[in-house]
# Entry
Amino acid sequence: MEYLTFTPDGEAARLIASAYPQGAKAYMRSFGCQQNVNDGERIKGVLASMGYMICDSEEEADLIVFNTCAVREHAEQRVLGNIGALKPLKERKRGLMIAICGCMVQQEAVVEKLRKSYPYVDIVFGPNAIDTLPGLIARRLREKKRVLLPPSQRTDIVEALPARRESAFKAFIPIMYGCDNFCSYCIVPYVRGRERSRRPADVLAEFRSLVEQGYRDITLLGQNVNSYGKGLEQPVDFGDLLTMLDAVPGDYRLRFMTSHPKDATPKMIDIIAGSRHISHHLHLPVQSGSDRILREMNRKYTRADYLKLIAYAKEKMPDVSFTSDILVGFPGETEEDFEDTLSLVTEVGYMQLFTFIYSKRSGTRAASLPDPVSYREKTQRIARLKERQEACVKTLLQGLTGTVQRVLVEEKSRFKGRLCGRMDNNCMVEFLPGPNMKNAVGEYQNVRITGFRNSVLLGAAEDLPTK
Ligand code: 5AD
Ligand code: SF4
# Structure
């Protein structure tokens, strides 16, 4: 494994400065998962290192970057629609550059489509090429030719990419990239490449620096954080990394996503339970409650394995909360298989579910499976699943009513005068602030839970902010 270090590109910065004497502005929009949000923050960091001012609208920008997602077809259609909508702007504005990056352009067919049908797209680069962006922009300016990189399977890791973080108290740290699991429905291993882990010392240094800057909600990111450490010279696993980070002093919360149930271990749960800072929350995507479907999905665990892990976590951490991803309508999913998913949801008791209708991704194994169930039937199943979840979550929310929780305030609620925040175990609460809470965002606050509306907890601040 090779580790490189990002260095700012002086020549590219000079080219930008002379091409845009009034100052160059860049607009960046990310679609999709947290990994992409984090990549987007790095893209903005790299652009700022070249002298771009980051702006909030496409109209103002001299460079527009769309950081795309390929997980579902719908996400791709949305991006193509958004690229299409840029055409008039490109015709109107001299010097405007359009760059498309992210998972979508790691597929040859998409790059070809952009080449042929979207001639006003100037630059295309994949998620493993963010460090090369200054060079790509410089090339576009110098050569007056489009720079469309083909999908790349780079296997190195670039450290020290600058980041323009969206929040002053919430931050992401990628700990690994790629995925080796090849779940049969999923495009990610094809577009993000093989698993590779950052060195523990690099993760620790970034983590320490965030804690010192006052970040309070830090999330470790990876497609499968539980396989952290494979291939590293130093023999470390994810549990060791958690222990190392948790030892850093400070008043922060540590979270991580995503855990793959096949690799999540009782050891990891023990570490969370005994930690000072790790949130008592597990995002454990189950995808389906049917053993037959789990096998077809190549998930490598059974319903019973999953439920055993959940039971262990509940035993060790009575306040633990669970969230999950569920995929409805995998090819050949029968009514009986689907009912297994419904019963699993009832058994676990999730605080929140992210539910998706299966979307066929070409190149994946599932794409060649017969898929006899109609889309209409699948939408009915997903509606039933949501209904079941809403009923189950009520019991959990009821159980929290009357308790006092330490909440990290995140933002103003859309309901006037209220604030939103997160409990230690990741549950969201909407609450009435106390009289002394004008600048409470990013601070901790004790909140008494008074009830709930739909699936959101409601509460009221208890006197003084906590320390
Ligand atoms: N169709 C629908 N949902 C998918 N996911 C992954 N691949 C697909 C697909 N082809 C969902 C899974 C995963 C989440 C990030 O996206 O539930 O956990
Ligand atoms: Fe996709 Fe499975 Fe890897 Fe998650 S673990 S990114 S679902 S292949």
Summary: Residues 179, 181-183, 186, 188-189, 223-224, 260 surround iron/sulfur cluster (ligand 2) (CB under 6 Å).
